[in-house]
Amino acid sequence: MASQTTDAIKTRFLIISDTHNFQFEDPKSQGDGVTFKHPLPKADVLLHCGDLTMRGGLDAYKNVLKMLASIDAELKLIIAGNHDFSLDGEDWKRKKGKYAGNAREEHGKAIEIMTGPLAKEAGVTYLEEGTHTCTLKNGAKFTVYASPYQPEFWGAFQYRRDEDRFNTATQVAPGVTSIATNPVPDFPNVDIMMTHGPPSGILDMCFDGRAVGCENLLRAARRAKPKLYCFGHIHEAHGAKRVTWLESSGSSDDGVFKTGAKEQNPFPEALYKPAEFGMETLMVNAAIMNLMHSPLYTPWLVDLDLERT
What we know:
The protein is α/β, with parallel strands linked by helices. The protein contains five helices and 17 strands. The relative contact order is 0.18.
């Protein structure tokens, strides 16, 4: 698993997304073709890119922690997604007039579940939008930018497509307004990006042919050039591609890139293809559920060379 080299430490990441109330003991989780099942390979870090539940709910959040507790990883980093309604405080506050009694207080209780004793017991760290630095027992250090947001689609954690949460006012595209309070840092200050929604043009194609990724996320990723960028949201676009960042032509388009063919998933072995930091990014859509919400997609196991503390 974790091994050291002269200049870096190889560190293993188990990447999943869109588990939507998944439990390992459910009968549908035992069927033919299901690879997200025990025993899972041990990892240094688990990354979950959102849509923990189907529609939120306090019992559902507790069950998510139960599921994640059974995964063997030193560090478990998770974000919310558009299905995790009551984890979005602003959206929940706007809608709370529709709910009666204790439901109005659900956001606070939901955050307590995801950040309190139950989460700690499960080894889970719930990430709000922003940049976080992590250090592992193997001596590896990495910085992750996390965000549960995606362009207006359905559910929670939404923004308009002419709003940019990820770039400052001096970095946005023409005609776009920056609403960033936690912008993505420039290269080389982010090793990993994890968002719920995909960037534009990369593993973002819906079943009906619409590409629904975010151009502003792509713009931010172009600036950050992380080693790994993982997301979910669009189940049917599950997969991984390696992106090569090209020199800007000097136009207003900062998202200049080319992609290779889809990577073959070697699970339960790890994908390990070292690349020069700042030149390439491994993009992973890690949705576990398919379009019909059956857990038929395979998780990703990825080894990264990380900085030594």
